[in-house]
Specification:
InterPro entries: IF-2B-related, IF-M1Pi, IF_2B-like_C, Initiation_fac_2B_a/b/d, M1Pi_N, NagB/RpiA_transferase-like. The protein is of the alpha/beta class and 363 residues long. Helices cover 40% and strands 19% of the residues. The chain has a 7-stranded mixed beta sheet with strand order 8-7-6-9-12-17-18, with helices on both faces. Strands 13-10-11-16 form a 4-stranded mixed beta sheet, covered by helices on one side. A 3-stranded antiparallel beta sheet has the order 3-4-5, covered by helices on one side. The model has no long low-confidence stretch (mean pLDDT 95).
């Protein structure tokens, strides 16, 4: 997508075989990049959320395996790198999927071939992510286009939660891909951007990238979505996902469940943009089976922002003795609240039979 008029991807390979990424900790105030030279760098970048978003985490982890093979291409080195990277984030299934694919591709090869093969496979996964998200966006675009045709001359208002944009993928994004493609086609779209406490990915990332691409948008507090729906100001919701179960339950950023409830109560379509790499057919009951990451309490107790004097500062917003130990990063939206899954293969009902029929070949 575009930053200051130039096309960017979120991850790239440098000439010295290190991995370049956009360091999202500094957005929206500064566009900084980071260079990941060792598997420990990749581990830190994922764990500390220099990069985030399920599809991007998977691709960067794949590059992490490639970096590791330059250091130690033995079987022990291969399994050690997978174990290290797998432990960084427990909820998003793309991480496990990408590392398993790398292990399967590399383990049969002689040691001297593994590094080159790892970089090639990681690059292939990056290109696949771009193609998948673009195709997913085409199917979502059809929904927006149909709505625009039904309401000639009216703006289409779309609510999204957290960041499922191109910053969360290699390019295009998942939930934002239909929006970008509708905008590029000339459809009058407007996005309600949830701030997405506690890390404010909506405010800092989604708003930034939509603004860079020129898409009209308005930042709202997390609790405003239901109010807007009650007053007919939301035509559809599109969110991303970190894991979808075999029966269609959706795990996404904390607060997604409440948006889905509000949408259901107000008859607003609630769509989930889901690349097939996010589908976990080994899990059925999302509420009971998906591990939910409990993050550091400082995310709740402190806020970071750009000071009027031109520097980044962090401030406490609650009493120092207030407990902040409960900070789930994700919640689970039951399949019954999901209008449809938008995938690269087409629209899919959030129902076990429909999912099995469309994704029988996904392991």
């Amino acid at each position: 997508m575009k930053v200051q008029g130039q096309a960017w991807r979120t991850v790239w390979l440098n000439p010295d075989h290190s991995v370049g990424v956009i360091d999202q900790r500094f957005l929206p105030h500064e566009l900084k990049t980071a260079c990941l030279r060792e598997v420990a760098d990749v581990e830190q970048a994922i764990r500390e959320m220099w990069i985030r978003g399920a599809p991007l985490i998977g691709v960067v982890a794949a590059y992490g395996m490639a970096v590791a093979m330059r250091q130690d291409s033995s079987d022990a080195g291969l399994f050690s790198a997978k174990k290290t990277l797998l432990a960084t984030r427990p909820t998003a299934v793309n991480l496990r999927w990408a590392l398993s694919r790398m292990l399967t591709g590399l383990l049969p090869l002689p040691r001297e071939q593994r590094a080159d093969a790892a970089y090639a496979l990681a690059a292939q996964m990056a290109d696949e992510d771009v193609a998948i998200n673009q195709q997913l966006g085409q199917h979502g675009l059809a929904l927006i286009r149909t709505l625009a045709q039904q309401r000639p001359g009216q703006r289409i208002n779309i609510l999204t939660h957290c960041n499922a944009g191109w910053l969360a993928t290699v390019d295009w994004g998942t939930a934002t891909s239909p929006i970008y493609q509708a905008f590029n086609e000339g459809i009058d779209v407007h996005v309600w951007v949830d701030e997405t406490r506690p890390r404010n990915q909506g405010a800092s990332l989604t708003a930034w990238e939509l603004g860079q691409h020129g898409v009209p948008h308005t930042l709202i507090v997390d609790n405003a979505g239901g109010h807007l729906m009650q007053h007919g100001l939301v035509d559809m919701c599109i969110v991303g996902t970190d894991r979808v179960t075999a029966r269609g339950d959706v795990c996404n950023k904390i607060g997604t469940y409440l948006k889905a409830l509000a949408a259901f109560d107000n008859q607003v379509p609630f769509y989930v943009a889901m690349p097939s790499s996010t589908l976990d057919l080994t899990v059925h009951d999302g509420l009971r089976e998906i591990p939910i990451e409990n993050r550091e309490g400082e995310e709740i107790s402190h806020l970071s922002g750009w000071h009027a004097d031109g520097y980044l500062s962090t401030v406490r917003i609650c009493p120092s003795n207030t407990a902040t130990s409960t900070n789930p990063g994700f919640d689970v939206t039951p399949a019954r609240l999901v209008t449809a899954l938008i995938t690269e293969r087409g629209l899919c009902a959030a129902h076990p039979q429909a999912i099995q029929a469309m994704f029988a070949s996904v392991g």
